[in-house]
Amino acid sequence: MTQHTTTRDGLSVRGVGKSFGSGGRAVSVLRDVDLEIADGEFVAVVGPSGSGKSTLLNAIAGFVEPDDGEILVNGEPVRGPGPSRCVVFQEYAIFPWLSVRKNIDFGTRLRAWRGSKQERARVTARYLDMMGLADFADALPKTLSGGMRQRVAIARAYAVDPEILLMDEPFAALDAQTREQMQEALVDINQRERRTVLFVTHQVEEAIFLADRVVVMSARPATVQEIVDVPWGDRRTHEIKTDPDFVRLRRRIETLLRSSAH
Ligand SMILES: Nc1ncnc2c1ncn2[C@@H]1O[C@H](COP(=O)(O)OP(=O)(O)O)[C@@H](O)[C@H]1O
Ligand SMILES: [Mg+2]
Question: MF terms per GO, please (predicted)?
Answer without folding.
Answer: ATP binding; ATP hydrolysis activity
